[in-house]
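Supplementary Methods. Inverse-folding protocol.

Structures were first reduced to a discrete structure-token string of length 327. This string, shown here, constituted the complete conditioning input.
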């Protein structure tokens, strides 16, 4: 079988871990929005959902979604209680410029914990001869699910760079399979490194992995203030021998504003006080640390998150305190 969906085993119910917690007003279960199978969000999100269930004794399920853009809308509407977003799509949703809900300011969403930076990269088969952005001219390129971060931004970046591509939308595993079968010419994606779907292709066929030239990187940085410069380290994949220049966005956990303060506070402790366990879920969790909360500059934090940061002596900017905060 070429690819199999990542199986995420349900964690054991451990009621003793939650005995001492104030569970007044907690829901009987919670849903965590992730992204498509084969991407880092799916692995990372399902992992921390299981860890929360294990530590807090609350039934927690991970939901496959279209990714960060859709997650903002799902949390805002209450379709899921927790999720994750990249801060580019997060900002678009916050100010009413989301491509899936134009004009809707998603102000029911609250920031919780910092996750990691999402760098963007492209994979193609080595035999295709595609080795850089310019080689994608006129070709069909997978960009992840419609409404996801890569699916939203890569088409804009290609246009900014003057490269005409035919975007193909779909889940990460599906698009990886299409690259391997020669049905599409490349797959442009963004996720924590190493990108699981890219590593799966590389394990089976020779590939070309690339990002941007320095000039291409500068053009994107100048035109899109929501991204930052990023260097993908050499040997991130077996066939990537040199550093690569790209751009990246920070990711944050998010929650609906009506989630109880005590629940969000306990979730913060589970995720941020157990970095060794988070690292076992995915290596990108190396950046899932309290001090990285400063990388949210616009979204109101949840009162439960603010309580956690205050206990760590990490002050939250007044402009990031939500209307319901009574601290």
């Amino acid at each position: 079988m070429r690819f199999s969906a990542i199986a995420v085993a349900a964690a054991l119910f451990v009621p003793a871990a939650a005995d001492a917690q104030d569970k007044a007003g907690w829901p009987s279960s919670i849903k965590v929005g992730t992204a498509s199978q084969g991407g880092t969000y799916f692995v990372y999100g399902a992992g921390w959902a299981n860890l929360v269930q294990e530590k807090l004794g609350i039934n927690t399920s991970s939901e496959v979604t279209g990714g960060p853009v859709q997650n903002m809308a799902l949390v805002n509407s209450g379709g899921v209680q927790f999720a994750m977003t990249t801060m580019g799509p997060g900002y678009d949703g916050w100010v009413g410029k989301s491509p899936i809900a134009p004009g809707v300011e998603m102000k029911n969403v609250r920031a919780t914990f910092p996750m990691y930076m999402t760098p963007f990269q492209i994979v193609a088969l080595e035999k295709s001869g595609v080795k850089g952005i310019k080689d994608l001219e006129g070709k069909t390129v997978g960009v992840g699910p419609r409404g996801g971060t890569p699916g939203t931004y890569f088409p804009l970046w290609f246009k900014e760079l003057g490269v005409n591509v035919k975007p193909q939308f779909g889940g990460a595993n599906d698009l990886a399979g299409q690259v391997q079968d020669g049905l599409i010419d490349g797959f442009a994606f963004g996720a924590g490194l190493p990108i699981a779907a890219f590593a799966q292709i590389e394990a089976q066929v020779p590939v070309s992995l690339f990002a941007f030239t320095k000039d291409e990187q500068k053009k994107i940085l100048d035109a899109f203030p929501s991204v930052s410069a990023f260097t993908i380290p050499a040997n991130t994949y077996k066939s990537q021998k040199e550093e690569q220049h790209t751009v990246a966005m920070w990711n944050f956990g998010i929650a609906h504003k009506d989630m109880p303060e005590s629940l969000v506070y306990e979730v913060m402790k589970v995720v941020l006080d157990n970095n060794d366990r988070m690292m076992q879920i995915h290596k990108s969790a190396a950046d899932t640390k309290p001090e990285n909360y400063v990388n949210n500059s616009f979204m109101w934090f949840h009162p439960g998150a603010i309580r956690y940061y205050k206990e760590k002596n990490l002050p939250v900017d007044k402009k990031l305190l939500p209307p319901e905060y009574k601290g």
